[in-house]
Structure formats: structure tokens, C-alpha cells
Amino acid sequence: MNLKTQKLKGMLCGAILIGVVSACGQNQQEQERRTPLDLVNFKELPDPTADTLSDWSKAENGLHASFVTIDKRFPKSIAPDFAVEKQASVTGWRGERVSAQILLWTNAEIAGAQVDVSGFRAESGSDLPSDIASTHFVRYVMTDEYAGGCGHRKPEDFASSLSPDMLDNLNSFDLEAKKVRPVWVTLRIPEDAKPGYYTAKVQVKAAEVPTQELSLSLHVIDKLLPKPSEWTYHLDQWQHPSAVARVEGLEMWSEEHFKALKPQMQMLADVGQKVITATLNKDPWNVQTFDPYADMIIWTKQKDGSWKYDYSVFDKWVQVMLDLGVNKMINCYSIIPWNNEIHYNDETSGELVNVEAKPGTPIFEQLWTPFLEDFVEHLRGKGWLERTNIAIDERTREEVDGALTLLQKVSPELGVSYADNQKTYRRYPNSDDVSIAMGHPFSEEDLKDRQSRGLNTTFYIYCGNAFPNQFTFSDPAESALVAWFAEAANFDGMLRWAFNSWVENPLLDSRFRTWPAGDTYIVYPNARSSIRYERLLEGLQDYAKIQVVKRALENKGDQANLDRLETAIQKLKITKPNQTWNQDLNDAKGLLNELSVQLVQ
Questions:
Q1: Is the peptide bond before 468 cis (omega within 30 degrees of 0)?
Q2: Which one of 119, 270, 335, 502 is at 20 to 30 Å from 528 when CA atoms are compared?
């Protein structure tokens, strides 16, 4: 057995517990188990910036707290220099999730700080319980800068800093001297909440220091937000199950692994995710990520030359996601892996065989034809055929031509999905699901034509576009802007890789060997949220509200307000920042709520 074969066998063995291939041994399985990260007792990295020299002499003794905008990230070491705000107000529909942010600071260490929110009272005497609110100490992760965007990176070549992003679930937090600590406040407005104005008290307290009291107002509009499963926005964020196994030290595809996946993927369902990310053979992206994608379907060439395919993992993974409500599409990567390689277990030799199979070559057709035929029958038996696409990610014109020719010949029942940066959608106008790189040229007429035929067309953000994006250094409001951009540009939604493709230690350092920091994930281990996730959810809720409000205005024949809303939306059809974009976004959000109130009066 050559070295390459040995290495491949080890990678595959660690991926398979259901339907173990015969060549895998217990020792190899044990070697693939990873030591879990410390997901609770970790300490943030030191601040590498000159901010640590900030002048804190004006900060009075004790614990300080102020409401601050959710549109800004606050550097950890800079002394606050703004007017303290003890009151804040938020507005939302019934069923909506809204956010506020508090900044804490002290010039001396304070142990065990807590932030508590009381129940909400309205002047009418109506109550909303305190448990509609949750508070989360925001943790700082190391980030870098956009600079050149895509490409390999050495940390020393890019400016680094600490960025507040992860929302922790701690009940209390030890505040550092001469540092700030953001606290994210999340309000989940009950679907049956009575409309009106409510007020709650927010207490910031710790032992041996005076308690700070703030006031938070909530305006509940008498409109019901549709459930995420009903949102029309087509959200496709690629999932990475292997990363969950690694950070929690779990055996790949074990029962414990699937149990750990569920709360993480529930977060995707909660923002209206429409697509299940699945794999067909070996890692489709040629290990561009920190964790290789583990096999979901095991290919075996039997001694008589026939083929056998073990779908055990694939079936269980898909069913988990379906049960969570992610059920529109199953996108399977990839018939064109980034290195054109696939592998299979050879019963005759007992080895894992690695093969390069370029589209358009005889070996490509020889290997993929029996699989596609079998896969179609398997999907038909599961009742999943109509929602399954063979997915392709940024492959060349020649590769796409070769792959789609075979798919049309062998398995025309399967849909096709691809991320497109070469106007491939024009050559294959009937493709079921196409995502166009943000900033790349596209035809509005083509979009309208595809939509008229029920074909899905989204845009995707990636390392090639600096704005808007969801890097850990991106302005928080960019995560909300992407949904408004889809509405303005008439896309059906957005694709983004990846939801949880974690770097080595995502709790501390979001930088990666390629791509700007944070490009590979927007949530954190143990199903912890982030500022980016919360603001993405905010934008997706806005998108759902826009559809409701537009329909209502159209039914009333209120063209004047339809025009006002459309004018506000079109200001956000931007792929480069201007001086007013964030204010334009907030103005559009304000108008959307204003029109919502008018519709129920």
C-alpha cells in the first residue's frame, strides 16, 4: 500500500461509524478522535492593538453601563467617550425577535457582573414576562482585515484586533479593569402579545458596587410575523457536520455527534434555512477547510465488478435536517470536486482507491453513471427525488459542460444547483437553483424570466466582495443589509458558505489560513449565537415583513406608500459602501414599521 492510499484510508475510516468499510480498523478510528476544545473555561486573547494605551483617567470608580447602538462594534480597550444613555426603545411585530446593546465598563476589576431584565408592563396593565428577554455577554475574538480579500494569509501580514462577536450564555461575567464589555439584549416578542408600549427595568449589578438601572421600552405592533418555515427568502448557508464532531471531541457520525448537531442546526432552521448541504463522495472542496468533510455515502466496488453504495449516514443526516424543518432542497456536492478526485473501497484489494475523474473523460462517465442511476432510485424510494439537486461550486466552463451533459443523459430527474461566477446560468437557463457571485454582472431580465418559470436565483457573498459581508470585522448592519439587497435587486435570497466551518479555535481566533477572518462561520460551538447571526435574522425578518406590507398596500391600492417603500429599498441596492448606507438602512426599517402601524389603524 502506498503512502497516499494509507493517508486516504485513515481519513475515510474516521468518517464512518455507520456502514464501516472493511478496511477500517479500530486503531485508525481511535486516531481520528479529537481532543475537544474547552468550550466554557477559556480566556480571550490579549489585545494586540495600541488601544491598550487608551486614557482611562476620566473613568470614575465603580461599574458603569449605557445603552449603545447595535450598529457599532466597540473596541475592548478604548475608554468610552460618549453621553451615557439610560433609556432605549425597540419596535417589533408579534413573533419578531429584536435586539438592543448595553456597554459595561470599569477602571478596576469587578467580579460576577450580572445583567437582569424585569418583566414588561404596559400602561394598560398588560404584562409580558421577563423570560421574553435574554442577556448575553459578548465575547471578543481575534480578527484581521479585508486587505486583498481572497488568498492565503500569514497573520503577521495583516492588521489584527479583537472584535466583539460571540454571544455567550454565562449568567455572570468578571469584568476586566480598563476594558469594556458589550452585553447583547434579545427580546422574543410573543405571538399573542397585545399591541402597545411596554417598559422593563434593566439592572446591572455586582457585589460591592452600586447597581446601575436602565429602562428598556418595547413597542409591539399589531402585525404577526410569519414563522421562519413560511419565509420566502431562499437562505442557503452550507453546513459542516465534521466541525461539530471535532470541537466537541465526538466520534464522527456517532449518536453523540448527531445529538450535538441538532441544536446547532436548529439555529439554521430558526432563520428560515431552505437547503440541506450533503456530500456524494470525498471532500468536495479538497480540504480547503480546517476540518475535512467526512464521507456521507460510501462507494464500494465489489469483487464481481458491480457497485454498492451505503447511504446510511446520508439518510440519517438528511432526516435530521428535515425533522428540523429544513426541507426545500437537498444540495449534494459534488460531481465536480475541486480536484476532480473521488474514492471508493475496493473489495478485491481491500484498499481505498483514489481516482482522478475529470468531466468529459471516459473514467468520469464510467464511475459516475452507476452511482447516479442508483442514487436516483434510492432518492425515489425515500421520497426525496424531487427536492434533490446535484450541486456544483465555481467550476470551469469545460468541467460544468461535461458534468451537466452526463447528468442529462443518465439522471435527468435530478435537479442542478451551482454557485456561478462565469455566467453559466445563461448557457443552462433551466437549472433549478443558481447563485450568482455578488458584484458579478447579471441581467435583470434573466432574473425575471427564471422567476416566471419557478426557478430559484440567489446571490452569494464570499471573500471576493468586501461589502456587504459577514466577516468578524464587518460592520454589524451589513448582516442585515444582505436581505434588503436581495429585495432591491430582485434575487430570491442568498447563499453563503459557511454556517459553521470552524477554524482551529473559533472561540478565540476567527482568522484562517485563507480568506478574511470570520468568512468560514457565523455561529459558535454549543449553539452560541453571534452579533452577525442576530443581525442576519433581523434582516430576514425585515424581508418577510416587506412581503406582508407590500401585499397589504397593493390590496388597498396605496401606490403612494408603495412608492415610498420601494424608494427606500432601492437605496440599498449597493455593493460598495457609501457614507449614508447604514442610516439609509435604519430609515428603511423605520419606514417599514411606520407603514405596519398605519395598516392596522
A1: yes
A2: 119
176-235 tens-digit pLDDT? 999 999 999 999 999 999 999 999 999 999 999 999 999 999 999 999 999 999 999 999
Q: Which residue has the cell 464532531?
A: 245
DSSP letters for 315-373? HHHHHHHHHHT--SEEEEE-SS-TT-EEEEEETTTTEEEEEE--TTSHHHHHHHHHHHH
Please give the angle made by the CA atoms of 237, 467 and 274, to the nearest 5 degrees.
Answer: 15
The residue written with cell numbers 461589502 in the block is 467
- Angle, alpha carbons 26-29-31 (nearest 5°): 110
CA 459 to CA 400: how far, in whole Å? Answer: 19
Amino acid letter for position 499:
F
Burial of 128 by CB count in 10 Å (0-12 exposed, 13-18 middle, 19+ buried)? buried
Strands (E), 366-463: 388-393, 415-420, 433-437, 456-461
List residues bridging with 212 in a β-sheet.
Answer: 204
Query: What are the cell numbers at 68?
Result: 449603545
pLDDT one-digit tens code per residue, 103-114? 999 999 999 999
* CB burial readout 175-198, b (16+ within 10 A) else e: bbebbbbbbbbbbbbeeebebebb
pLDDT in tens, 84-134: 999 999 999 999 999 999 999 999 999 999 999 999 999 888 899 999 999
Longest dimension (CA), the chain: 81
